[in-house]
Amino acid sequence: MAGHIVRNVFKILFYVHLFLIAVLVIFLIIYGIVYASHSHHFDPNMWYPPLLISTACSGIVGFTWQWITFKNPTKVIKTMFRLSPLLTCAMGILFVYIGSALSLVVGILALVCGLVQSLYGCWVGPRFEYANRILSVSIADPPVKCKTMTFLSILIGVLYCSFLVCGICGARIMANRTNLFALFILLILLSLGWTMQFLKNVLLVTVSRVKYMNLAGGVIIDTRVSLHNTVKYLAGCVSIGSILLPFISLIRGFARSTNLIGGDTNEFMFSCAGCCMAIASFLVTCGNRWGFVHVGVYNKGFVRASSDTWDIFNRVDLVQLIDLDLTGSFCFLSGVAGGAICSLVSGILSLAMHMNYATEVSIYAFLIGYFMFRLALAWPQACVSAYYVAYAENPLSTHFDSTIPVRLEQLQFQRSREQEDTL
Question: Which pLDDT tens digit goes with each residue over 339-361?
Fold first, then answer.
């Protein structure tokens, strides 16, 4: 009962937030139209084209990339692990070239991130073969009308991002009259993140339910019916997951990075690595993307669904395999690459039109591109999630090939070798 109330509260909160953001953006647009001619510090005609063009570019390239993923699943993962660092470094060079204090900080950060991505790509190289295989078998038979639903979601995302861009422009025109413009922009960006996560997770729940039912029992469900049920009955769960999952993923990523860097050293800065990993291990049971499968299939709350799914993984000894899965990293790096592409497009256009706007416009374009690419790749990620959960619940089902069992044997052999080496 309490869980049902919480779901309804978050469902109402999400829709109320959409209404309030719409009111705020409309107000800012009207304000911008009225006072644009009186603003001598900001020219909307030099600000709109780069962002709107990069927003449209994010939709086109994002949809194209998910199509390439479907057509060549055995090549896209390795390609993205090589492409993302290059695009991130190119974006960093652009920010450094712009030359402002903020752009220099962002540019150096982007260059460091590009280097880290390169090193990470080298480190996980041995996992590419299995990652290609699991992605291929998972998306081999996608749900009917999946691509149509993805296209419509991307179209909604482009229109929504364009709408928010207009609101940000109105807030920038307000900059010379009040300091509240920064708060308005922050609220708009937070709404962008929550709403795009919501759209992505709606697709994740919808597609994973259809895929799971097909894998687990051979049942074929109409994708449109699944989408309708998700929006009507599960919006609260999706809203909660859209808030919790990014924070849990961030904490877990930080903990794993700290533990990896710290190793077995006893320096003070790494003394909390074990504590961080314990907290991260607990949090992942409370919120993980695999839980969205049970949200859609069993109408569970997000936290309970995540906990139940993780218990199943523990019971069949799949946790290590899940931890080593590269699908999440592939989707994240695709988002970073998409954001870098949009940032480069908007940044180059801004340099050609009005250099003073280049830093700000490029940052906004990166965020839009990142979320659009994550939205475009929601359905492949959903298929992989459903495949793992369905296998964990019934490993002996004839719907599965030898991909996971063979990988489990390889991991067991590696653990045995490592134990022998330590003796």
Answer: 999 999 999 999 988 778 889 99
